[in-house]
Structures are given as C-alpha cells and as structure tokens.
Amino acid sequence: MILLSVAWHSLLSRKKTAILTFISLTISIVVLLSIEHIRLQAKESFNRTISGVDLIVGAPSGQLNLLLYSIFRMGSPANNIKYTSFTMLEKRQLVDWAIPISLGDSHRGFRVIGTNNSYFTHYRYGKKQSLKFEHGGKFSSLFDVVIGADVAKELNYNLGDEIIIAHGIGNTSFTKHEQTAFVVSGILASTGTPVDKSVHVSLGAIEAIHLPPSALKKWLINPEKTPPVPKSITAVMLKLKSKLSTFGLQREINNYPTDRLMAVLPGVAMTELWSLMATVENLLRAIAVLVLISSLFGLTTMLLASMNERQTEIAVLRMLGASPVTLLLLILLEAVILVSLAIIMSIVVLTLALYSLEAWLAAEFGLFLSDDIFTMELMWLISMIFIATLIVPLLPGIAAYKHALHAQLSSH
C-alpha cells in the first residue's frame, strides 16, 4: 500500500503529462473495445436473422448463394423450383411447417417477397422471436401487401396506401405492374433483420401480375375467381418435427427425382458466410491493436522522458532504503494505475455511448447494439491489455533499476 501511495503521488507530481497519457490510453482502449464489441454484435446480428429453420430448399446453386438470396435478400436465384415440390414438402409427415419464398420483383429498391400467411405465423428471428404487426395484419385479399418497418419509414407508407410493384430487383425498372395496385394491409414491427426492408405479397398475387396482359385483363374483370396457382417458387424454409430426421430428409430432397432440389442447413451455410468475412474481421482487429500499441508506446515514452526529472526523487527513495527492485516495481505500478483508470473510463464511456445511442442506431441504421459489453471475449481482451501493460513499461523500469544500482556503486 505504501508503494501504491508513492506511485500515485509521483503521478500527481507530473499531472499534465499523466493526464495526456491517460486520455491517449482511454481513446485507444475505447476504439479497441468498440471494434471488438461491434464485431461480436455484427456476428450475432447475422445469426439472429433466422431462427428455428432446419432446412432451406431451393434450386442447386451452392449453399451460400441459397442462404444469401432466400434469407438475406442478396443476389439473385439461379433458378426456381416447382410449386408442386413445395406442396410435396409441406405434406411430408416429418415437416412441422413450410414457408414458400418467391423472389424477382421489387418496389422502389426494396425486394418483394411472395409468400403466404404461414410466413407471419412461423417465421422466427433472434431468440425465437416471432414477427409482430405494428399496424394492420396479414393478407386478407389477393392484392394486400405487408411491408417491413424500414419500408414504411423510408417511403412514409401507412395502412391503405397503394403501391405498384416493378419487375426486377433494381432501383429503376422499365416494367411496372401498373394494372394491379397493391394495398398496404399491414406494417411489421422493427426486427433488425432483412424483413424490415421487405415488401410481402401473396404467391397468388405474384402469379396474377405475371399473367399475359389479355389473361390478366380477363381475370381482373372477375376478381372473385380463385387466385392463380403458382407454377414455381424460389425457395422453401422448413421446420421439422424432429431434428433427428434433418439429415435423412436433406438426403432425400437432394435426390428428389422429379425436380432439381438442394437442401442446406442454415447453421452450416451461416458459418461459411462468416468465414468469408474473417479477413475484414482480422483487419479491423489489427487496426485496433495498432492503435493500442501506439498508445502503450506513448506511455513508455512518458515514463522514459520523466527519468531525468526523477533523479532527485530516485535519490531520495534510495536514501530512505528503497532497493533497485522497489524502484522497478514503482515504475510498473505507475503504468498499471494509468492503464487501470483508462480501462475503467473506457468501459464507462462505451457503455454510456451505447446506452444513449441504442435507439437512434436501431431507428436510423437498423443496428441493434447491446449496451452490455461484459462478454467473455472483451474480458479476455482487457486481460491482454493488462499483460501488455506489464511488459511495455519494463524499459523505463529497467532504466530506473540501473540508475539506482549506479547510484549505489557510486556511494561505495
């Protein structure tokens, strides 16, 4: 405790330099912890996009491609599968529920998803959270549309508004289905997933708007007719009654004789997707570590620069009986005090920033960042900072040790 008190008062005697070093360390540690926290949250965000789906079925095009276009609305499907394949899967004894997905259209840059009401009943994200309606409800008529939270906010849509769907997935399309306007029947609550940026319509409506103009005109004259049955869809999400049957059904689907099908496990495809991002992840980590190393060297420089100023202090401590090892420990203790205070301040600053910006980040950017930063990974990172703190100040500590030894020899 005496040595701690001496180290603290020694830092106070060099207040300006110590404060500047403390600020530099705090900024570096905030950057390091922020990057690591965002990296972990981004990974969790990817994993929370879908929950409870055992198999995704689509046309053979690679498991990553199938995952990207069916779940993340990224890229384009290579081919469709027969609608009869969906009905076959839906009726299987092993299947608990099945959600059809049909892609290919858009509305002002937002992807249009053709599906049925089972999507709103069974789709899960995060920790098995179900979709909730902020306003309105599911499809009740053929040309009803349910929009995600981001679509409603960015385009300022409300219940009852009419929208026109365009062919293709670009922001600009020359082929619009202007004969069939959709009416907003429901607006989903925000989920932080691609669902927020999706426009959901029924499969029958998708089939209707793609009818030849003459057939569509006849059909619109008598809208009470049974909705057209789709001929093909893009993908199917399956939930099985027992996970034990997953691999067996996957093998059966991959060998299905009447259609070219491919079934993938979402977890395996998600792992492959994350492994592709490992380079960016490591780059972010390297930048953060370099920032921290530069600050620790700044700490070393501060301690070394103060050696000349502290010759009198060291001489007094030697006269009071402090050994060279004690002086070495004193230097290390000063570094530990500065880094400990910087870590505490960094945690406080980061937690307050995340707490105050949490709602804004979710509303403006769809980023759901938790203000709880106390994860095992971050605790491990803080431990590594402490270990580095014990190594980096060794240089000024050894300088103080040698100076004390030299003073001791000179006295003899």
TrEMBL record:
Record's bilayer topology term: Multi-pass membrane protein
Swiss-Prot/TrEMBL keywords: Cell membrane, Membrane, Transmembrane, Transmembrane helix
Cellular compartments per GO CC: plasma membrane
Subcellular location: Cell membrane
UniProt keyword Cell membrane present: yes
MacB-like periplasmic core domain sequence ranges: 19-254
Transmembrane intervals: 17-35, 286-306, 327-355, 378-401
PANTHER family referenced in this protein's UniProt entry, alphabetically: ABC TRANSPORTER PERMEASE (PTHR43738:SF2), ABC TRANSPORTER, MEMBRANE PROTEIN (PTHR43738)
Protein name as annotated: Putative permease
InterPro entries (alphabetical): ABC-4/HrtB_transporter (IPR051125), ABC3_permease_C (IPR003838), MacB_PCD (IPR025857)
Species: Colwellia psychrerythraea (strain 34H / ATCC BAA-681) (Vibrio psychroerythus)
Nucleotide-binding recorded as keyword: no
Domain ABC3 transporter permease C-terminal: 286-408
